[in-house]
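Revision sheet: structure tokens.
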Amino acid sequence: MSHRPLPLPGEKFWKRIEAAPGRVLFLDYDGTLAPFRKNSHEATPYPGVRKVLEKILESGGCRMVLISGRWTKDLPPLLGLKKFPEIWGSHGLERLTPNSHYEMATLSNVEVRGLAEANELVIKAGLGRHSEQKPGSLALHWRGLDENIRVRLISIVEQKLAPLARKTGLVLKEFDGGLELRVPGRNKGDAVHTVLSEESPEAVCAYLGDDLTDEDAFKALEGRGLGILVRRQWRSTAATAWLKPPGELIRFLERWAEVCTVVQGKESRDRNMHRNLC
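Predicted:
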């Protein structure tokens, strides 16, 4: 865990990416590709991000994977891309492939009932419009809210949701701008492990994220690539590099697109040469 600001990704990293037999780009969404908004449905990517993501996807030189705490169905409209990457939602509980195949982890009856009860408690307290139901979780958002509402939300967590979590085996996890009650056993690091298990052991990757929920993913990358904290303000992290959005973020993505395009072109030429020799 680093307690001081980290450098930008250096040339050694880019040479390693170019030489690798495979490349995986993991991306968080909120706070990483898009700025936070009080209304989460208005959180579209930073200007310039869509264009460079399209370039990376079109290059064919890497695998792009979004891993978010959001419901998978919410991301395609916000991204607004012509082609879509693989998307893992609800902190790894859901998986949506580029060909629209959908998978969802199985929840126990106790977990389902616990989440339903939590939702009822929040609604009865008159705080339903500050909550968000997702597969396997209930999130409470207090970013930008009046302090009185924030205090009420924290109060219901302490008095109602914490005892419910202990009773049902659900877990409370803090995120940037709120708190989430969710099923245990899956996190963003598990999604990273699953994707990497499908790749060559020599494949190199990068994970870009901003939130506390991304720390599991940074740790999952150990020895396989670069964990990159994307925030305007520094915080202690398991990541090994730091980018300030949007400028440094976009420059990183543009360099990634450039490398993927060059590699894909070289691989295409090598395949053509091999066919001609045969």
